[in-house]
Amino acid sequence: MARAWKPEGTRVRVGQVEVGGPGFVVMAGPCAVEGMEQTEQTAAAVAAAGAHILRGGVFKPRTSPYSFQGMGEPGLRVLAEAARKVGLPIVSEVMESTQLPLMEDYVDVLQVGARNMQNFPLLRALGKVRKPVLLKRGLAATIQEWLLAAEYVLDGGNDQVILCERGIRTFETATRNTLDLAAVAVAKQRTHLPVIVDPSHATGEPELIQPMALAAAAAGADGLMIEVHPRPEQALCDGQQALTPERFQQLMRRLPGVLSAV
Ligand code: PEP
Ligand code: MN
Predict the structure, then answer these.
(1) Which SS3 state, helix, strand or coil, does residue 133 take?
(2) Closest Cα to atom 8, ligand 1: which residue?
(3) How much is the ipTM here?
(4) Which domains does the chain carry?
(5) CA angle 178-181-183, nearest 5°?
(6) Is the distance from the beta carbon of residue 55 to the nearest atom of ligand 1 less than 6 Å?
(7) Is the per-residue pLDDT at 5 higher than 80?
(8) Does the pTM exceed 0.95?
(9) Does 201 sit in the ligand 1 pocket, CB within 6 Å?
(10) Atom of ligand 1 at shortest distance to CA of 111?
(11) What's the pLDDT at 4?
(12) Nearest protein CA to atom 5 of ligand 1, as residue
């Protein structure tokens, strides 16, 4: 996947959107799909603010087995309906290859979460799929390990891979994870794949999401993934880091200034 092999870079097409092209692509939505009202409200808000792809998890990789695990298949139907109403494509996490046939019916981009970055059987299965893959960097993965994980998908015959830096675990505890912005520049230097940044999981705190999103744009990222919830205090997953629709709108208004300056 060396950059030299494809200097112009890979463009990943998702419906009308292209990741890795001249445009900056924003994926936004709830951490987890919780129901029709919450998902439709969020979809309408992020679409109105200018997001390009709707995110929402239905299979949630939770630290505790007693936490909300996601709605599963009914959640996919909710997500698809909400996305259809606002005309946005969908990105959602696949946790195991047995979920692929179902996910492929509803989802435009298949997300591999940080905890599954080195699930090699899953990566191999995604190499055989004809849909784009969003590969998040593992919680404690080096850049090299992340890029080699992407290579598993490419090697299987699927070159539609988007890399996502979402923060790594370090000695620092002031933020949920440590956003490694240099990884964006390194990945862009070493590979031909598009790279996006998820400042929501990287920082874990609404106040820090906007500055880190703007910094990611300045660092050369091809896009962002942001968690948004209409009522963060009631969210079933990651409410502490969710942006309200108003805050998301504010971030979207500030992005063009940074993008036009770099
Ligand atoms: C998510 O995007 O909801 C998620 C679980 O992210 P990560 O895999 O980066 O922790
Ligand atoms: Mn989340």
Answers:
(1) strand
(2) 113
(3) 0.99
(4) 25-35+43-58+69-256 (3.20.20.70)
(5) 100
(6) no
(7) no
(8) yes
(9) yes
(10) 2
(11) 78
(12) 113
